[in-house]
Amino acid sequence: MHKMPRIWVDYLKFLISQKRVTQIRRAFDRALRSLPITQHNRVWPLYLKFVHSARIPELAVRVYRRYLKIEPDRVEEFVDYLKKIKSWDEAASQLAELVNSDKFVSQYGKSKYDLWKELLNIITKNPGSIKSLDVDAVIRSGIRRFPHQVGHLWCALAEFYVTDGRFIKSKDIYEEALNTVSTVRDFSVVFDAYSQYEESMLAAKMEIMEAEGEDEDDGSGSGLTAADEVDWRIMRLENLTERHPLLLNSVLLRQNPHNVEEWHKRVLLFKKDPIKAITTFSKAVATVDPQEATGKPHTLWVAFAHFYEEHNDLKNARVIFQKATKVGYKGVDDLSSVWCAWAEMELRHKQYDRAREVMKRACVAPDRARHTTTDNKNDTSIKVQKRLYKSTKLWALYADLEESLGTLDSCQAVYESMIDLKVVTPQIVLNYATLLEENKFFERAFRAYEKGLDLFHFPHAFPIWIAYLKRFLQRYKGKKKERARDLFEQAVSKVTKKNARRMYLLYAKFEEDYGLARRAMNVLSRACKAVDPKERAVMYSIYIQRVSDLFGVTKSREIYHDAIRQLPQKDLKPMCLKYANLERRLGEIDRARSIYQYTAQYCSPERDADFWDSWRDFEIQHGNEETYTEMLRVKRSVMGQFATVQLLPTDVIAKAKPPKDRKRKRQNTDEMQILEDEKANADGPAPAPTPVPAAQEKPKQNGAATKNPEEIDFDDDDIDVEEKPVPEAVFGGAASGADSGLGARERFKRQKA
Fold first, then answer.
1. Is the pTM of this model over 0.70?
2. What sequence ranges are listed for the domain Pre-mRNA-splicing factor Syf1-like N-terminal HAT-repeats (predicted)?
3. What phi-psi label fits residue 36: left (phi over 0), alpha (psi between -120 and 50 degrees) or beta?
């Protein structure tokens, strides 16, 4: 019967009820030896229950160790029991094995870091009980293993030494943590913990001093009194607070040692200590890699040189600049900024010859560069020092120095070199030409303009063209008209629509002053078609004004006709009103009325009330009853036309389309009719006032009306038509108030009076 687990279980329960510990333990051992291992799961739960109830820690520990050989995943139960009996050393050892095991999976769903926190909690709160573990090595391994919790782990290690009474060691741990963490979050955690530690130590020393007196020895064996110990603690706390910006800067530099801005901030922290500032500058320029730098690495070299300059050490400043020019920067602009800063330093100290010599050294172009036209400024395969000659910034400063300190020949040579190397800007070309003009070399200045125009196209060439043409006209006036016309023709042939207005106006002004008036008008006519559509109305107004001044107002009619054909619809109304006013001043009432009738088709009575008011005033002043009535009829027609376009539903438009099963012949006929209508509408805006809007067509008096083949025949009896009065808005305000019941003749007479 010794192979039967049920017999053993009943027997063991019977023994447990008798509470004979030794006999029970031996019975459990005999049961485990007798039963096969597959049936041990029937015995172990009862065995563990027994050791818990026996309250013999040594027995429970030994039983659990045997049990874990069968069920290693139940080690967390063992740890909980060890914590319950306060066997901290054994619990820490078991947890240390768990966190170092890659195969272990918690039955309670705990992560590796949760187990680590549990281990740290045991270690830090019970440092005297931990004998079998090297706590320092364990926590440092966790620091390497969990980089996202470095700050908390460092604080746990320091807290372990504080609890153990080793305060100097804990301070060293805090200092080591501040000098090794690489994130601002971890730094904040460690720094706050360090500050609280120092404050608590200071408070404890002050309590001791108050209790024992200021002259008593502090008991540490250092020979300091309690008052001295308090002063020393206060000094340490203040020093820690003052070091905060420097420690934080060190953290940021550990994150990215190539952060230029942080190196500048670090130098400012040592502003009052020149030795440390120089050391920091030296470390910065040696650490920062220009190819990986965040920011502008050349600013470190420039600031380093300026530091020596502020301390009147120009010799070392020049040495720094000389070293800075040999650094392999990422771009040409960085190196050119170093050379420019060097020259500016020499200028500040009135070393003008040195400044010119510096710029001359910087602007030397390689021999092969003088024979090539390719722009290799951004070619990273070439060293930045060999691409420096392509820096426009460098050449511009060199030209300014030569213009201020050199001779005309040396300055001209610099500008010519810039043009040959194609490093000029439009402003530099203008400066070069202005320099030559100031020295009375006008033809050289014109050649400089032409060289600049060869390098630039519109819109960048626009200021050069304007300056060139103005200077040429100012110099020769009307003496070289053909040459001037040739220049103007070249300019207007390349000018963009955005810049065409100013160019054409300058051309027309030249023809008016020194050429023929007809040529000037021809230029303005071309300008009206060449300018941007947004400026076309203004250009036509200028054209009309000049024609009226030179040839009389009657000559402007053709221009008005052309403007009405060319202008967009939004600019058409003002132009037509000007045209109508012109005809009215000339006494051409019928022509003015035709213009009003033509313009009416583009003007809504609601949006363009000023146009309809102008036409009404015109008819009251110059018309009669019939023309006034015709004006009202056109207004009603146009109002209906705009209302139909705005309010017609899309489903009605869709239903108005011809069905698909229409015969092919009828489809062709409709398509031809549509094309003819479109052609008629396209020809509609012909020279005013010939066209007549569709709203003015008279209904046919003779002949039957054309029958619609798609018309639906309804019986008159089936339709109940409700009659309503016509709204007053249909009459355009002509019938209102007391005049609403009057006819057109009576209304006209009353308004005429």
1. no
2. 1-73
3. beta
